[in-house]
Design a protein that fits this description.
Strand order of the largest sheet: 1-9-5-8-7-6
Number of helices: 8
Number of domains: 3
Helix content: 10-25%
Radius of gyration: 21 Å
Mean pLDDT: 95
Order of helices and strands: EHEEHEEHEEEHEEHEEEHEHHEEEEEE
Low-confidence stretches: 2-9
CATH topology of the largest domain: Gyrase A, domain 2
Strand content: 25-35%
CATH architecture of the largest domain: 2-Layer Sandwich
Largest sheet: 6 strands, mixed
Structural class: alpha+beta
Distance between the termini: 48 Å
Length: 397
């Protein structure tokens, strides 16, 4: 086993010089050692760009591991819960990996670059866990986070922009597909993936060509409404899509200090990612027991009455009286759906699709706090799920 790690420190994205030029808010946070913008202009404007035109989000801080070697496939198939043998070269898999107790450590995307070569992208850093999981296997794991940068281009005009950029054949790239293109004499990898639940792509390139890519992309998108966007706008889009976020919908299992705080894939609505036909993967025995005996928690999507956002609200089975049965993890008023929506976690047997629950919402207006009990309906579909995100080829906008 061969492992190469980067020294963690304080970094700026290779795209930062262009971001600094347009930044009007000066609101930044740290994302795994990198400075990442909350926003550049206005959260609402940036959010609507992802729904009406295209938003460009810097995904450089994502942890990126290159996994190669004769046992690369065996390593990944044992590490994650889904069947990686079904993911062919040129495809991308969303996956989760668990500890021995069947609790989710993290989720991420695994890019099958070519036979025996993969890139795993995640929010958190996991080299220590991967090293332990790779013992006895002929596999090389390289942390290439510092060498590769990326932009997520998301929204209805994203295809038109990449077509204008001259990426011939981009119209045939299917959802969760990836392909390599020539960009001014260098290689650029494009995947039809994203975190907004809309038509979108992620572009990956070496750091030395980052500014060149940014300039070319924004030049190609100048008549298609392209706009740089920050984390706040992306957060709105991912809630509408019903996507999970670490430290929001679940705590990575190795960060918890109290029992009952971690979640399993079954409790997060990710049973479709668990392939029990595989003979061996981390957490398999615990997950089989949970499937047999039932889960303690259930992730729910909530359509809530009114327009008061249910941030960090308790969830009750009845309007008056009774013990709380769960809590909201993420909430927002959706401008495009015209709904008060939320993701939450409730104790079973509550939370079946169609169930009526009650959410205790506190909100402040002019220093005065008010409380309302709002009825919430459990739904099974994403709040935002346009057909264009699946269309191949996408329609030009």
């Amino acid at each position: 086993m061969t492992v190469t790690e980067v020294d963690l420190g304080r970094y700026q994205s290779p795209f930062y010089p262009r971001q600094a030029e347009i930044d009007r808010l000066n609101r930044w946070h740290e994302w795994k050692g990198y400075s990442s913008a909350d926003g550049f202009y206005d959260t609402t404007l940036e959010y609507f760009a992802t729904r009406n035109s295209a938003g460009a989000f810097d995904i450089t801080p994502m942890t990126k591991y290159r996994i190669t070697g004769p046992d690369a496939l065996d390593f990944l198939d044992r590490l994650v819960t889904r069947n990686m043998r079904k993911i062919k070269p040129g495809r991308v898999a969303y996956a989760v990996w668990c500890d021995d107790g069947g609790h989710v450590i993290d989720d991420g995307t695994i890019f099958h670059l070519q036979e025996g070569e993969y890139r795993l992208c995640s929010q958190e850093r996991h080299m220590a866990w991967f090293k332990a999981a790779a013992i006895g296997m002929d596999v090389t794991i390289v942390d290439e986070t510092e060498e590769i940068c990326g932009l997520a281009l998301q929204g209805p005009t994203s295809f038109s922009i990449l077509n204008e950029l001259g990426l011939s054949g981009i119209d045939q790239l299917r959802p969760f597909g990836l392909a390599n293109y020539d960009f001014n004499g260098t290689d650029i990898m494009v995947s039809r993936t994203g975190f907004t639940g809309d038509l979108g792509y992620e572009l990956w390139i070496t750091n030395d060509r980052a500014i060149e890519l940014w300039d070319a992309l924004f030049e190609a998108g100048k008549h298609f409404g392209i706009m740089a966007m920050g984390t706040a706008a992306l957060e709105h889009a991912r809630i509408e899509a019903g996507f999970l976020a670490p430290f929001e919908e679940f705590l990575p299992a190795h960060t918890t200090v109290r029992t009952g705080r971690a979640r399993s894939p079954l409790e997060l609505g990710l049973e479709w990612l668990v392939d029990f036909s595989k003979p061996c993967f981390n957490g398999r025995r615990a997950l089989l027991d949970e499937k047999k005996n039932g889960s303690t928690w259930r992730l729910v999507k909530l359509d809530i009455e009114g327009n008061k956002e249910a941030h960090q609200a308790f969830i009750f089975p009845k309007k008056n009286g009774g013990k709380e049965c769960g809590f909201v993890t993420s909430a927002m008023w959706s401008p495009v759906c015209k709904q008060n929506i939320a993701l939450g976690t409730v104790r079973t047997p509550h939370g079946n699709v169609g169930d009526k629950l009650w959410v205790e919402i506190y909100y402040q207006r002019e220093m005065h706090w008010s409380r309302v009990m709002a009825e919430a309906t459990v739904v099974d579909k994403p709040f935002w799920d346009p057909p264009r995100k699946r269309s191949t080829p996408p329609e030009p906008y």
